[in-house]
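Because showing beats explaining, we let one protein speak, sequence and backbone structure tokens together, and leave readers to judge.
___
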Amino acid sequence: MTPSATTPAYRRLSVEERRRQLLDTALSLFAHRAPEDVSLDDVAEAAGVSRPLVYRYFPGGKQQLYEAALRSAADELQQCFDEARQGPLLPRLARALDRYLTFVDEHDAGFSALLQGGSVVETSRTTAIVDGVRRAAAEHILSHLGVTAPGPRLRMTVRMWITAVEAASLIWLDEDKQPPADDLRDWLVEQFVAVLTVTAGRDPQTAALVAALSADG
């Protein structure tokens, strides 16, 4: 080797970069296998690090790593519905869904792991993490609707629609992300209006919202 020849330098990751790498790796593994079937050795091997290094970042072991991975995905997903309260409602909802579907598209493994978490690992903490995303999304939507005291029918309608969005997103991944994301977004917005319209026949509060949406659009 000549004096001018060099070998590629190994770049050490910062603490935050390494933690993010381990979380992303764990989410990918948990998305495709049940958490009980994933060991810390599996995470270490997939991340290209040693098992003691994983323990250094997550001394509580696999359960701590699993919960941290779910929380990281949940925190990002909750922000998708944080839309400015300006302009007509349906375009606002469409923009929020654009961010939501972009997250699903770019983090398909993490999204699957997040939604599977509450049913695969029966702990109060993981269930709370998953449910927290759904409740935060519902609160954002009710805020966009301008409702400060939603009745049970309206709350149930919004939460049912959020469940439908989750199911549609998982099926979308199974269907090789077809139809295109913008078509899926428009379809989901139309479904939101449709379920509100059905509830409006039984609930005066929702009926007033549907009338306001019609006037708005």
